[in-house]
Amino acid sequence: MNTRTTLIAVAALMLAACSRMENPFETHVPVTLSYSTVAVTETKAAQNLNEGTFDTGETVNVRISNTGAGEWVDYYFTTGESGAMSPYGAVPYYPAGAKNIDIVAWYPATAGTSFSVQTDQTADAAYKASDLMFASVTNQAKQTGAVNLAFSHKMAKINVNITPGQGIGSITGLSLLNVKPTVALDLATGTVGEAGGTVTAIAMSNNGSAVIPAQTISGGLLSIVTDKGTATYTVSGKEFAAGKQYTINITVNLRAVGTTNAITGWGGEGTVFIDTVRREYVDMGTVTIGGVEKNLKWATCNVGATNPWDYGDYFAWGETEPKPDYSWSTYKFELGTNEQGPFSKYVNDDRYGTEDYKTTLDPEDDAAHVKWGGTWRIPTYQEWISLRSDTFYDWTWTDDYLGDGSNHAGQIVTRKNVGGNDPCAGNSIFLPATGRMDGAQNESKNQAGYYWSSLLSDERTYDAHHITFIFGSVNDSDFLYRFFGLSVRPVTE
Question: Which of 28, 100, 165, 470 has its CA at a distance of 20 to 30 angstroms from the CA of residue 418?
C-alpha cells in the first residue's frame, strides 16, 4: 500500500461510523471547533477570571457521532484566545459523503454521569473544576470553518463580598452551608438531575465566588468567621437556579443593619444586602394574649433600617421585597386589576378567588422572617393590641426623638412598672412616623406611622390589619388595602 493510500485509510478510521465514499479526498476534512461567550460574565473563585471566555489552556471533552447513529467517539480540545479550540491528541474528521454529525461538549473534561462540586472552592482551580458547562450542536453539515459551541452553565453561582463593619476587626473564614453537592448528568443532552448527596459546607474566599447545583436551601446559608466570633445568615426556602448568579454584599456589624434582596441572571449584577449578625431587641415584658402568657422581644429597628429612628423598607402585605411602586397592578397575590381580585392566596371569601381560608401570613410571606431569619416575624394583630394596653405601656409622641433638631418624629413606647416590681419597667422602643407608600409616593412621612400585622381582615379579603398613629393619636383597629407599602417592626419570643 502506498503512502497516499495509507493516509486515506487512517483518515477514514477517525470516526467510528465513517463509510465508503465515491470521492476519497472528502475524508480528509477535519472537524474544527470554536466556542462562544459562555452564559456568564465570570467563572472563578476570584470574581474577575475568565470573563466572557474560558481561560487559556482549559481542557474540554468533545463527543462526536454521525447524526442519528448514536455511536459516540470522545476527543479532547484545549481552549485558546478569542474562542479558539485546538484538538489535543486525536483529530476528528467529518464522515464521507453527505452525512452530518452531532456534537456535545462539556467542561470540566473530567465530568461524568455523576458530577459533584468541590467542597473547598477558595482556589481558582477548584472553582473551575466545579463550574459544569455543556454545549451541543445537532445535524452539523461538513464545513471547513470552525463549528461554534455555545456553552451554558449548569450550576448556580454565588458571589460574596464582605466588609468588616462597626466593632469587627477582620474576616477570617467564609463557607456556604447546607449545600447538596451532587447531580446526575446526561452526557447526551446536558440535562442535570436534582441536587443530591450528603449535605455539606463549601469553603470560599471573601470577595470570591462558588458554584453549587441548583437547589432550594432552608436554614443556615452563610457562615462568616470574624475576630469577634462566627455569624450565620439563615434563609427560608431560598431558591438558587441554574444559570443565575447571586451576589451577596455584606457589612458585618455588631449592631443590626438593614436588608434588601434582588436577584438577576448571570448576565447582570444582582445584589443582596444582608445583615448576618445579632439583631438587637428590647424585652417589653410579659403580657397575656388569648389566655396565653407571652414575653415578647421587640426589635429596636424596622426591617431595612440601620438605626431606631430610620424608616427602613416598605412592604405590601405578604410581600418580602421593597419595590418602586405599590399598587394593585404590582401586588404579588393580585390576579385581577383592582381590589376585587381575584387573589391567588389568603382568600376567605369566594367572591375574591378560590378560598384557602389562610388568614395569617405563612413564614415565606413574612418580611420580618424572610429578611431576618431565625424566630423573627411580623407581630400578630393581638400582639400589637397588647402593646397598646394602657395597663402595661405608655405611648408618647415626640417631634424630635434625638433631641438634636433633626426632627425624627414618632411614638416612644415604654413599659410601665406593672405591680410595682416589673423587671422590664422603663424599657422602651421607638416607632418612627414612617408614613405609607401609595404608588411611588410616601404619604404622611414624619406625621404618621403605619405598621403591618400578620392578620388578614376578617371583613374584606382585600384588606389586612395594621396599627397606625397620627401625631399623638393611636388607632389599633385599622385595616388597609394589601397593596399599600407599610413598615415592618419584627418581634421574637
Answer: 470
Number of domains in the chain: 3
Distance CA 311, CA 475 (A): 19
Q: What is the pLDDT of residues 81-100, one digit of tens each?
A: 878 889 988 899 998 888 89
Cα–Cα distance for residue pair 314/435, rounded to 1 Å: 10
Strands 73-79 and 393-398: unpaired
Cell numbers placing 113: 454521569
The pair phi, psi for residue 304, each rounded to 5°, is: 90, 0
The span from the CA of 276 to the CA of 256, in Å, is: 9
The phi and psi torsions of 8 (rounded to 5 degrees) equal: -65, -40
Per the domain annotation, does 209 fall within a domain? yes
The pLDDT tens digits for 26-81 are 446 777 776 654 433 333 344 544 456 788 899 999 999 998 888 899 999 998 88
Strands 292-299 and 393-398: unpaired
Decide if 121 is inside a domain.
no
φ, ψ at 100 (rounded to 5°)? -100, 175
User: How far apart are alpha carbons 390 and 33 in whole angstroms?
Assistant: 78
Tell whether 118 is covered by a domain: no
Question: Domain with 77 in it: what CATH number?
Answer: 2.60.40
Mark whether 306 and 322 lie in a shared domain: yes
Residues 409 and 341 in one domain: yes
Q: What is the pTM of this model?
A: 0.50
| Structural domain range at position 441 | 281-492
In angstroms, how far is CA 342 from the centroid of its own chain?
29
Distances (CA, A) of 443 to 322, 428, 439: 16, 26, 10
